Amino acid sequence: MKKNKTLGEFIIEKQAEFKYSSGELSKLINAIRLAAKVVNHEVNKAGLVDIIGASGDTNIQGEDQQKLDVMANEKFIQTLSNREIVCGIASEEEDDFITINSHDQNHQNKYVVLIDPLDGSSNIDVNVSVGTIFSIYRRITPIGTPVTMADFLQPGRNQVAAGYVVYGTSTMLVYTTGHGVNGFTLNPAIGTFYLSHPNMQFPENGNIYSVNEGNYIHFPQGVKDYIKYCQAEEDNRPYTSRYIGSLVSDFHRNMIKGGIYLYPKSSKSQNGKLRLLYECNPMAFIAEQANGKASDGFGRILDIQPDELHQRTPFFCGSTKMVDKLEEFMVKSHI
Ligand code: AHG
Ligand code: MN
Ligand code: MN
């Protein structure tokens, strides 16, 4: 039987491809692999918490059960902080960025990581897929000094790696270092990720659109027109509508089957809902590396110059031809 490559083997094999090939980025991906396994274990137990709690023998330490997004945040931060590679972390769950090794002037840590530790958290209570999203940059300030905001506020095109974990019917880690996108599936029996989806690609076109249509009346005219186009009885339309409400899972499905994900601005939220730095940029990098496209409706997500850690942006991402079409409608509605 053909033996599938493990993620560990893959990381070592690909190390030479990195622009700065010192093995540090490999160590960083390894840290994420480890944190993903721990969080996966916790997420899988989520439904049991009440049952175990009722039996009265949980919480040996007498601690209250943490919310899973707080737990995931802690696990990722702990794992990433301990390896002398990362000099700063920004997270959806933290107001400010975290500085690592600020007192050790000899440290050589070069990378900053931005994470959404648990994406789709409203789906946890109902046993629906959730995820983790991460984005990695090289710092721009001198090594050995404390990180500054400028290290985090880089345009997405500067990312050196990005990826996500989807805790679904099976758990997968999907990532890119700028040389295509590869997906690894966890074998939970032995705790090893195997290369299951080499060289993932968005189909150029698709027939799935994913949007929270409950907000329809608040959408910009261009988005409303595009949705009507998706629903029209013409060519190979109407498209089919699929919306999980976890960006990671909606994106993952669309990358495999072909589709577009839309989170527009609305009259309620002027910049939409999704966060540029740890939701849209990493997904945009993966999309482009998989022959897809990511736009704010008028331009490339990866070219946006961020000015705030938690800033939001409208987000349209998926099969290139579908995102092109959406942009056409956006421009038309602005003329
Ligand atoms: P998070 O759980 O990290 O706050 O992210 C939730 C995001 C994203 O995953 C999802 O696509 C979107 O919110 C869903 O928003 P709506 O409920 O407004 O559709
Ligand atoms: Mn999220
Ligand atoms: Mn989150």
Automatic annotation (TrEMBL):
Coiled coil regions in record: none
Magnesium keyword on record: yes
Cofactor(s) needed by this chain: Mg(2+)
CDD domains on file: FBPase
Cofactor binding, per record: Binds 2 magnesium ions per subunit.
Pfam family, one: FBPase
GO cellular component: cytosol
Pathway terms, separated by semicolons: Carbohydrate biosynthesis; Calvin cycle
Any one GO molecular-function label of the UniProt entry: magnesium ion binding
Residue numbers binding Mg(2+) 2: 116, 119, 279
Classification via HAMAP family: FBPase_class1
Protein name per its UniProtKB record: Fructose-1,6-bisphosphatase class 1
Species assigned in the record: Sinomicrobium oceani
